[in-house]
Amino acid sequence: MEDEKKNPNVITLNKTEETGVVYGNIGVGETTYEMNKFHARQGHGFAAERSEHIHDLYHGKDAQILGDDNLKDGADRLVNGVEIQSKYCRNGSACIAECFENGKYRYFSDDGEPMLVEVPSDMYDDAIRAMRRRIENKEVPGISSPDNAEKLVKKGNFTYEQVKRIAQAGTIESLSFDAANGIIIARDTMGISSLVTFATSVWNGESFETALQNAVLSGLKVGGVSFLTTVISSQLARTSITATVRAGADLLVSQLGSNVTAHIVNALQNGTNIYGAAAMNNVSKLITGNLIAGTVSMVVLSSFDLIELFRGRISGEQFLKNTAITGATIVGGNVGWIAGNAIGATTGGAVGGVLTGGTGAVVGAKIGSKVGGFVGSIAGGTMAGSLTHEALGAVIEDDSKKMLRLVEEEFIEICKQYILVEDEVEEALSRLKERLTSKVIKNIFASDQRSLYIQSIIMECVNPILSRRVVIENVREEDILLGLRILIEDAINGEGIFGKDEIVPSISQMKTSLLQNSNVRDEQLSQIMQPVLKMNKTQKKVEIALNSMKRSNNNSYKSMKEIKLERQILKNELQRIMEE
Q: Which pLDDT score is estimated for 140?
């Protein structure tokens, strides 16, 4: 009765949703890694870059972050092909001053045109005045008219105080920023989870509509977890908790070594490659972000089971088992990501270097790192979760198995009580399987009267079957004697069920034939077979009546023959007497 492909108690992760959750944690880890810069002396400046970048993405612009390459006098952002310098300082004049060195403008695109300078929205006017003065002083090569100041200065979408609060934990601005980031990550994880779920549903033989529904539900669930994980992890990344987690990450990085960490970090970042202590420092920050994201996602996923525990819908043992499996999956995914990233970056760099030289090595390392990290995280999470489930399964039995065992016992008793025949049992089982959802199983566990509750569920499935049964009238004693007589005579004469004529197909054979040789669907079969069953019963009654009439005629003929014979004997006797 139990469907081994589904465990009604494990509402946190299934085999396909593991893919989306672990993949989402990778994105969250990279996001918190980028936010490490928010702790720097000019952390609000990095917060401004990220905020403006997110704003542009939400408005459909082709936006990229370029400032992470640390290129001297390079652009911070690229929006629709336009290079931009983001300057968020204490006033507009200071923002413009940051763009000059030794009395000359320092930021130019490859075509020789000055880059745009993006400033806080509340300092735009002050920045325009400052840029006009600089142009008047001949400090911007190629620009002579002060009126062009407005072409060089771009008004940002945030104020100076807003970006400062974005860099802090617990503010409305930082929560809004993290929520916007979370939606982007959730979108990606929803896509991965929905795609995998849709594919597996189709491969399992489910219809297109069902597969689509499964995909949407899975995507929403995993996307929601990723959204919450992003917001909570990003807030924690702005606090002192990061330093505590960092200590463990440093220990892990020291075991990886400088060569492996260099491959990892250079595969993930743009710009000049870094090595040694700098590379190990960056990888430690990245692993810290992943550890925080993994811990938060485990808490988020386990919170569903915690609520069920408080409601009395699962046992304490089930809660511990679910939490352990979830934790193992998340940890396994993180370990797999680290290992896959390192192996992929090293292998990809080596292959790329052999094929095309130095440039190919860089590109190969980046591709290998992404692919290896993704595959490693999924493989590691799935393997760790499966092993933990098997190990704990030998010690802790799922609540669902206990409840289903009770359902089986009650079902057998009801089948005996109502004398259900084979077809009726199959139909009742089919209805019962659809009825026993995860919610119903938990309701059974939480019920104070489990036996009565289970009986009511089973009877909901059995009653429609009982209502279709033909009502049997009271059978008279003489009817039973007649049936016995007919049966004995059929056995003697080789007729009826003892006949050697062509065997009439059974009801089960008729049903199988309909399914195989026509377009009849399984769910239509019960409706179709009802008239057949009634016709079959009617035909039986007709046969019995005809046989009864036949036997009555035979009996009458026999009686008349006997009477004639007796009369003839009497005549003969009388004639003999007369002759004497």
A: 92
